[in-house]
Amino acid sequence: MNEIIHPQISYFVMKECSPSWEIQQQTISFYDLVFVLEGSADYIVNGEAHHVQKGDLLFIKPQSVRSATTTGMVCAAVDFLLTANEKFELPTVSHWEDFTDIERMLKEINYDWLQKKEGYKMKCQALLILVLHKLLYEKPHQKINIHVEVIKRYIVDHYDQKLTVSTLARVANISTVYCGALFKMTEGTSISAFINQVRIHKAASLLESGEYNVGEVAERTGFKDVYYFSSTFKRLVGVSPKTYQNRSPVIYKRL
């Protein structure tokens, strides 16, 4: 599946469906996403029955046969198209414990979709990409830990400075002992590994620019030892910083 996709919204609605609402059996030519915000519904997709309720996401692919009924439901539904070489995959039904961020973005799409002011399609497409990214890369039952998010954002904003667990714990207002364990449990990696990842990603960008030598890049990304920087870069990227820089096209020339 392509990491970059360009969804084109063909239909969007947020509405309350009464018991008389139904979708008669039909073959669809688009991707169909249905977010159940309240109530429940019964869908049949390619001959398989799915009962969906509050917190459920229904995903139907093009060329599928669908029909649906409800006893009462509030939902947001979006139909979108992709280019011939683009694909998008999700389970037919998934349950999300926390729909807050998704619902907020859907309401924003609804706000612009109904007004149809100049540029609304571009904004709605951008918002849909954010929704799809969240659906694809975040776990349905995973709740965001605010302390870990504070730590991650602090690291991204201060990667070039000295970063210690005690500093990060203070920023997140938690104990030093708990800080490292919480981060590892939530992110599946250590704080130091995350710091190195952020620093090396930034270092790669600086090396590609051609503005700085290896020593300058190490200093600008928070590494006080150029040899440790070089070994860390090679371990994570697969080549030395110098080799990486020589392979990269020079965007800016040193003045």
From TrEMBL:
Q: Does the keyword Transport apply?
A: no
Q: Which PROSITE patterns match?
A: HTH_ARAC_FAMILY_1, HTH_ARAC_FAMILY_2
The yes or no answer to whether the keyword Transcription is present is yes
Q: Which UniProt keywords apply?
A: DNA-binding, Transcription, Transcription regulation
Q: Which InterPro entries match?
A: AraC-bd, Homeodomain-like_sf, HTH-like, HTH_AraC, HTH_AraC-typ_CS, RmlC-like_jellyroll, Tscrpt_reg_AraC-type_HTH
Identify the Gene3D superfamilies for this entry.
Homeodomain-like, Jelly Rolls
Q: One of this protein's Pfam families, by short name?
A: HTH_18
Superkingdom of the source? Bacteria
Q: Where is the HTH araC/xylS-type domain?
A: 149-247
What GO MF terms are annotated? DNA-binding transcription factor activity; sequence-specific DNA binding
Family matches, as PANTHER family: ARAC-FAMILY TRANSCRIPTIONAL REGULATOR, HTH-TYPE TRANSCRIPTIONAL ACTIVATOR RHAS
Specify the protein name. AraC family transcriptional regulator
